[in-house]
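User: Please go through the entry that follows and flag anything odd:
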Amino acid sequence: MKLCWTPLAVADRNSIFDFIASDNVAAAVSLDELFQKKAALLAEHPVAGRTGRVRGTRELVAHRHYVLVYDVSDGRVRILRVLHTSLQYPSRKHPAGVRRSK
């Protein structure tokens, strides 16, 4: 299956990379490579993740702290978000967004 990353997912990856790289560039590179590897796995096995919390999505734990939120349609896997597990997703107050858990 074809794999694509939405602009929002790319922005998530970039933010995560920049945050981690400020302390440890090698760790940031390693984590970003892991995200790419897990996404490639989804291209081969699109139902590898669990049913998502938002209708029509699926989720794959890419790392103990990060989840890939994706959908599958028209012969492609589309990575929608890369979210930290501490985020409350989705939020009742902001269903399209996320906020930090208390």
User: Anything to note?
Assistant: The beta strands are 2-5, 50-51, 58-63, 66-73, 76-84, 87-88, 99-100.
